[in-house]
TrEMBL record, chain A:
This is IBH1-like N-terminal domain-containing protein. Residues 18-27 have a biased composition (Basic residues). The keyword Transcription applies. Residues 47-104 form the IBH1-like N-terminal domain. Residues 1-47, 197-216 are annotated as: Disordered. It comes from Trapa incisa. Its main location: nucleus. One of its GO terms (biological process) is regulation of DNA-templated transcription. Residues 32-47 have a biased composition (Basic and acidic residues).
UniProtKB/TrEMBL annotation, chain B:
It is found in: Nucleus. SUPFAM superfamilies: HLH, helix-loop-helix DNA-binding domain. The keyword Transcription regulation applies. Its main location: nucleus. It holds the Pfam family bHLH_ILI. Residues 5-59 form the BHLH domain. Gene3D superfamilies: Helix-loop-helix DNA-binding domain. This is BHLH domain-containing protein.
Length: 216, 92
């Protein structure tokens, strides 16, 4: 009876060594693939990215409170602040993030003057990548159907800044946008949990501490 | 030599092949939780696009709901309790 127990630690250590070796190899291969095939998931699922976004979000929310009117911020304002923070964290490398940042800048500029959108975008992204490469799609078997084309148009309207883009661009933007939205949901729900738990414990916990019941 | 030049131009970013599109569609499919379980061959591009639209819409709605909730919670911070003051000083 003791023999299987004695075997187990040895076997587990060997297995763990092999597992670690395999995991390292897999991680290396995966990191090479991830660099090309799945950069979105790795980028938006990392904890550092979420922490960065959360701090940016809190900063934006505080600006909303101080800079706005005396009335409490509405849901719309919070949503816009969250989107701005999201687009900022995306560093303007995708079309949707640039479009989100542009929406705000456009509103501000329309009041004063009207510079060329290309120069503004270059200032925002820090690079003069405003010219779009011409993309031609050849031989789409079955993808020229009107049903698919209609869905592609709907998808292009959902993602900011992708209304007139061709199919492969929309698909790529969609992957990044979905991953970014998931991270936004995660960060905002964590913040909401934090605030609600702190708020609910205020009446029960702190009051009890601050007002000790007189027990003479 | 002209054939080599046209071949190099084809491999550039100006022409997208169907394989690349199929690759993008499958990558998108892997991101959507509804379609992740199914085998990739059985899902058509139209279905992937439809589910993508639905998923993006649901994510938008979730963000809107969370924004409403956060605005309510932030409004509750306006009260003058000690706890609220602590949170306010932490956040801002």
């Amino acid at each position: 009876m003791s023999s299987p127990l004695a075997e187990i630690p040895v076997a587990s250590s060997e297995r763990s060594r092999d597992y670690r070796r395999k995991k390292k190899k897999k991680a290396q291969v995966q990191s090479r693939d991830q660099h090309h095939s799945e950069p979105y998931n790795a980028k938006w699922k990392s904890e550092s990215q979420q922490k960065l976004y959360s701090s940016k979000l809190v900063q934006a929310l505080s600006q909303v409170r101080l800079g706005g009117t005396a009335a409490p911020p509405r849901g719309r304002t919070v949503r816009e602040a969250a989107d701005r923070a999201l687009a900022f964290v995306a560093k303007g490398r995708t079309r949707w993030s640039r479009a989100m940042l542009m929406n705000r800048v456009k509103l501000r500029f329309r009041k004063q003057r009207r510079p060329g959108s290309a120069s503004v975008m270059a200032a925002l992204t820090g690079s003069s990548r405003s010219k779009k490469p011409k993309v031609r799609v050849l031989r789409l078997k079955g993808k020229n159907l009107p049903a698919v084309q209609k869905k592609v148009k709907v998808l292009g309207r959902l993602i900011p800044g992708c209304r007139k883009e061709p199919l492969p661009v929309i698909l790529e933007e969609a992957s990044d946008y979905i991953a970014a939205l998931e991270m936004q949901v995660r960060a905002m729900s964590a913040l909401a949990r934090l605030l609600s738990s702190a708020g609910s414990s205020s009446s029960s916990g702190i009051d009890r501490i601050s007002d000790p019941s007189p027990n003479v | 030599m002209s054939s080599r030049r046209s071949h190099s131009r084809q491999s550039g970013s100006s022409r997208i092949t169907e394989d690349q599109i199929a690759d993008l569609v499958s990558k998108l499919q892997r991101l959507i939780p509804e379609l992740r379980n199914r085998h990739s061959d059985k899902v058509s591009a139209s279905k992937v696009l439809q589910e993508t639209c639905n998923y993006i819409r649901s994510l938008h709605k979730e963000v809107d709901d969370l924004s409403e909730r956060l605005s309510e919670l932030l409004a509750s911070l306006e009260t003058d309790s000690d706890q609220a003051a602590i949170i306010r000083s932490l956040l801002m």
